[in-house]
Amino acid sequence: MDMARSPRLKTHMDQRAAHFTASVSFDWRLLPFDVEGSIAHVTMLAEQGVIAHDAAETIISGLKQVLEEWQTARLSPRLEWEDVHMNVEGRLNELIGPVSGMLHTARSRNDQVALDMHLYMLDVGSGLKAALHDMIASLVERARNDLDVIIPGYTHMQPAQPVLLSHHWMAYKSMFVRDYERLEQWHERTNCSPLGAGALSGTPYPTSPERTRELLALKSVYDNSIDAVSDRDFLMEFLSWASLVMVHMSRLAEELVIWSTQEFGYIRIADEYSTGSSIMPQKRNADVAELTRGKTGRVLGRMQGLFTTMKGLPLAYDSDMQEDKEAVFDVVDTMTGILAVVPGMLRTLSVQRGQIKKRLGQDFTAATDLADLLVTHGMTFREAHHLVGRIVGFLEGSGKSFQEMERDWLKEIAPAVDPEWLNHLTAADLVIKRQQSMATAPHRVQEQLEAAETWLNRHNDATKDESQS
Ligand code: ARG
User: Fold this and answer.
1) Inter-axis angle of helices 84-96 and 31-47, to 10 degrees?
2) 270-317 pLDDT tens trace
3) What one-character-per-residue DSSP string does 76-135 give?
4) Residue 27: pLDDT over 90
5) Which residue from 343, 389, 414, 434 has the least number of CB within 10 angstroms?
6) How many helices and strands (H and E) does the chain possess?
7) What pTM was computed for the model?
8) How far, in Å, CA of 415 to CA of 166, rounded?
9) Which domains are seen in the chain, by residue range?
């Protein structure tokens, strides 16, 4: 029996058209969720007296067998059955015979596929949350480890003012914490059951969407059946979330690429996370970081793709919506892959303290503070800014640092500057003076670090509880 094909359609489908419309080559991964949803549906149908209890039992044990065959890779997708939903029913029919025909009572593939996607997304969402927790932990560990290192902080990618390297790592921590919280909020909204909507209007059977919600341990039921089958917001929201995470990942990856160049030399990426060149024997390429940066384009593209697919669709279900799957699955796989390697790369990289120190001695990141000193001695900031700019210009010409400046010469061009000040303009002096709770003074960074560690512990328990339930 060709289940997807009603007798209204007289001829067989054109082979190429069948191939074109089928989704089973990519929706196969939904099978466990499809079975889970079907078991809840059939259980509810029997409780409500829509089908007989013994029929429900036969169907449920058949569904469990289909799942078992899938888990042990003994089941192959069949194109003639179009999608994963029809494949489950088709195989069920082979296993238990005509009683399988009761499974689809009071249900449409429209509410079925929507439910499958919700269940799948909630499942992968939990995995991504744990992976993101590990990403945050790796940044916090780096920050703890590198507390003794001061780097030139940059604006416009020019040395600006010194900051603690830990402070820099923890800026990324803050971005990923926001991503984590956004994922939690998305999880709340996605935790909603569309089952019961049928094709779009509900069904004439006395079903209980509330009961299937309860059986599936979901938090709520859609309040509008038309919305329930046509809503893909939770997928677009997921892709937006993923895009933002990837923008953060990509900025971090870009810095790791730059910092690991010979020209910067601030870090060395561990051998385990570096690749060589097939022609240049000396090469150590930051491939993991580069590909992380590169895959950002793909995730942003998938987001753009699904938004564009959805933007002109009339209510309720349209086949265009089948396009959601490849977009979302690709992004889930891409994010999972990235979150599996980036924390390890961060944990194993080594910070080249000597090289960083050398660079700090050569730049003029103390210039703002020298101007600030002049201000405390009565100059306006504008005058001070101008004067220090001139000093830096002279020093650059002679290849000297503030500390190496000849005192006679200083007296001549900037009598307002007390030469003694120059001894207190080291990077360590400068960071200590920035005392706002968010700023780079070591004791402040220490506090920020402790707060981050507390956050991690608190959310670690939450992540663990969730994977146990
Ligand atoms: N394969 C379809 C999808 O992924 C399932 C829903 C099909 N519904 C329908 N009325 N053709 O969206």
Assistant:
1) 60
2) 999 988 877 777 878 899 999 999 999 999 999 999 999 999 999 999
3) ---GGG-SHHHHHHHHHHHHHGGGGGGTTTT--HHHHHHHHHHHHHHHHHHHHHHHHHHH
4) yes
5) 389
6) 18, 6
7) 0.94
8) 38
9) 15-105 (1.10.275.10), 110-146+162-204+217-355 (1.20.200.10), 367-425 (1.10.40.30)
Q: Whose CA is nearest to atom 4 of ligand 1?
A: 322
The closest of 238, 46, 27 to 113, measured between CA atoms, is: 27
Encoding tokens for residue 244?
A: 């933002």
- What's the token pair of residue 62? 């058949």
Residue ranges around ligand 1 (CB below 6 Å): 23, 27, 83, 109-110, 113, 317, 319, 321-322, 325
Cα(226) to ligand 1 centroid in Å equals 15
Mutate-to-test residue for ligand 1 from 121, 322, 328, highest number of ligand atoms within 8 A of CB: 322
Which two three-digit tokens encode residue 34?
Answer: 């499809």
Tell me which residues are annotated as active site: 156, 277
Q: What is the full DSSP assignment across 258-319?
A: HHTSTTT-SEE--GGG-B--SS-TT--B-HHHHHHHHHHHHHHHHHHHHHHHHTTPPSS--G
Ligand 1 atom at minimum distance from 317 CA: 10
The H-or-E segment that residue 183 falls in is helix 165-190
Summarised one tens digit per residue, pLDDT across range 181-195 is 999 999 999 999 999
Q: What is the pLDDT of residues 84-135, one digit of tens each?
A: 999 999 999 999 999 999 999 999 999 999 999 999 999 999 999 999 999 9
Cα gap 17→21, rounded to integer Å: 6
DSSP state of 388: H
Ligand 1 atom nearest residue 82's Cα: 1
Residues paired with residue 267 on neighbouring β-strands, in sequence order: 351
For residues 131 and 429, give the distance between their C-alpha atoms in angstroms, rounded to a whole number.
Answer: 38
Residue 245, helix vs strand vs coil: helix
Q: Distance from the CA of 318 to the center of ligand 1, in angstroms?
A: 8
Residue type, 74: R
Q: What percent of the chain has pLDDT over 90?
A: 80
Measured distance CA(45)–CA(76) in Å, rounded:
29
Q: Is 247 exposed, middle or buried, given 0-12, 13-18 or 19+ CB atoms closer than 10 A?
A: middle
Is the pLDDT reported for residue 469 higher than 60?
no
